[in-house]
Design brief:
This protein has 155 residues and is α+β, with helices and mostly antiparallel strands. It has three helices and six strands; from the N terminus they run E-E-H-H-E-E-E-E-H.
Length: 155
Amino acid sequence: MTSPSWPDLAGRLTDEGHVLPVRVYYEDTDATGVVYHGAYVRFFERGRTDYVRLLGVKQSELAESEEPAAFLVRRMTIDFRRPARLDDLLDVVTTPGAVGGASITLTQTIRRGAETLVSAEVKIALVSAHGHPLRIRGALRAQITGPPGVHTQLS
């Protein structure tokens, strides 16, 4: 159970999807204090991981289950619009899109206040330990395909 105060460590499910606050640290920047492009990929990963976690799926439990599995990035398209800088407070917003048999397409944005800095479309796939696609079933599928703002943590 998460605290009702904002920001929660794993972010929060809202009407627009999952929102994760991220602070820009020195390690995220280049010599000029601008966020290095690879750091945005890490920010997006944190957003996706915490989004799925709040839906009740822990990556570590998937990996250690009777049928080991993992969500992997299949495709990512990124649009860099404006730079973030050292000490900025950003929001990583993850919004679910199409759900296929073994894949989920997500839209992710990184914002500073109301300003969109970077956006991405990311397709993730559920695969077995041997790399074979696995169907997304049951409660997880229902959570992802449900209307925004009505997500509840799975048991």
